[in-house]
Design goal:
- It is a single chain.
- This protein is α+β, with helices and mostly antiparallel strands and 396 residues long.
- Helix content is 24%, strand content 45%.
- It has helices at residues 2-10, 23-32, 53-62, 78-85, 89-105, 122-131, 145-155, 335-353, and strands at residues 12-18, 37-43, 46-52, 69-76, 111-115, 159-167, 170-177, 191-195, 199-206, 210-211, 218-219, 224-227, 229-232, 236-239, 244-259, 261-267, 272-279, 282-285, 297-308, 312-332, 357-369, 372-384, 386-390.
- The longest helix is centred in the C-terminal third of the chain and has 19 residues, at 335-353.
- The protein is elongated, with a radius of gyration of 41 Å.
């Protein structure tokens, strides 16, 4: 395999020999060390073989000593290709201009790589960079990384570190997100714990202050559960931070109405593929007509950035849009389907109501109302119902 590649780089010729004594040519090659391969006999007086370009020239001179007809059948390899191209000046000029454009474009940023994002999206980082003049097509050597870092940290307080390093036509953006400091709870500010909702108290765990209810007590929303004002026979009223956790049983009744007639999508089976090129920030459509698709059509868009060997990004992105038309037709939804959909929706709403708790029991009831199904979720839960409320400042 390697010898074949070397021969193509040097150039190889496939020749044809015709003679009354063709073996004389073979003896001549053996005598003067002319290497050949792929020998094929066409007849007793003719054969073809392949040899290097340099050896072909030698053999043509040596063949004059014997009575033979030596002709070249084909030429392959780099020297012959370059020889055919040497007078195509437009091709060489285009190639030179392309190389010059490639070298010139390497001084600009055509690709971004963002690392370290967890809660902050890479798109948000890129938009912030563009607001400060660093975007697609920015001159790479004009990027002042220290100044840019200071501006971005002031603009985005959720970041603790950011660095922008430009290498070639790619900008590497490394970020570190700020770890939020824990909330500092002052132990000197007095307050009470009150009920956040109606419940049947099951447990009281005071951390400070004095509890005002016992397990088995029914409380209303806003009722005092743990008091931060403690009366003493010796020192009078003391103002404490009446904090703690109070658990209770709560009941919820959530409703959801699901229509039984829905519009169902049916694909027509047709598919339209449109292609375009993004050169820099300019879009070049490779199709005719408007780029706006209809309302009853699914549109799937994919982007593929062009790169050279070595993962060198080019300022060209191929865009492929696949359009799949569909029709809307009414369909009658079964009660089982409507009940399952309502169950999913109501379960999610119930989870939003429970900040710290669990569902003990639940029931679903359904009732047909016109062309809809009214579903009611009744749930009994166990949750933490205490909510801390600070007391107004006391006068001295």
């Amino acid at each position: 395999m390697m010898s074949h590649v070397v021969n193509l780089l040097k150039g190889e010729v496939t020749g044809r020999v015709e003679s009354g004594f063709p073996e004389r040519v073979l003896n001549l090659c053996a005598e003067y060390g002319v290497a050949f391969w792929d020998l094929r006999w066409e007849s007793p007086v003719a054969f073809t073989f392949t040899l290097a370009r340099r050896d072909w020239k030698r053999l043509r001179r040596l063949s004059k000593r014997v009575d033979c007809d030596l002709t070249a059948v084909s030429w392959k390899g780099t020297p012959f290709f370059l020889g055919r191209m040497r007078r195509r000046y437009a091709l060489w000029v285009t190639l030179a201009l392309g190389l010059a454009a490639l070298v010139y474009s390497s001084f600009f940023i055509w690709d971004f790589q963002v690392e370290g994002c967890e809660t902050v999206s890479p798109q948000e980082i890129l938009r912030a960079l563009e607001r400060h003049g660093v975007g697609f097509g920015t001159y790479g050597y004009a990027v002042d990384s220290p100044e840019l870092r200071n501006l971005l940290l002031l603009e985005m307080p959720q970041l603790s570190y950011i660095a922008v390093n430009v290498k070639g036509c790619r900008a590497y953006v490394q970020v570190r997100e700020r770890v939020p400091a824990p909330e500092i709870v002052s132990q000197r500010e007095p307050g009470n714990t009150v009920a956040a909702k109606d419940a049947l108290v099951t447990a009281v765990q005071p951390w400070g202050g004095e509890k005002q209810v016992l397990p088995g007590t029914t409380v209303k929303e806003g009722q005092l559960l743990i008091s931060g004002v403690v009366e003493s026979d010796f020192s009078g009223a003391r103002y404490l931070r009446g904090m703690g956790k109070v658990y209770g049983r709560t009941w919820y009744q959530l409703r959801c109405q699901v229509p039984l007639t829905v519009q169902e999508r049916t694909c027509t089976g047709e598919e339209v593929v449109r292609r375009a090129l993004l050169v820099g920030k300019n879009r070049i459509n490779l199709y005719f007509g408007s780029s706006i698709s209809g309302d009853t059509c699914d549109k799937i868009t994919t982007w593929e950035k062009w790169r050279l060997p070595g993962d060198v990004a080019l300022p060209v992105t191929a865009v492929t849009e696949t359009l799949r038309p569909y029709t809307l037709s009414p369909r009658q939804r079964t009660e089982e389907e409507a009940l399952a959909l309502a169950d999913t929706v109501l379960t999610a709403r119930l989870a939003d109501c429970l900040e710290e708790g669990e569902v003990l029991s639940r029931t679903l009831t359904a009732q047909a109302v016109g062309d809809a199904l009214l579903v009611t979720l009744t749930a009994e839960c166990q949750e933490q119902i205490g909510r801390f409320v600070e007391l107004p400042a006391q006068g001295g």
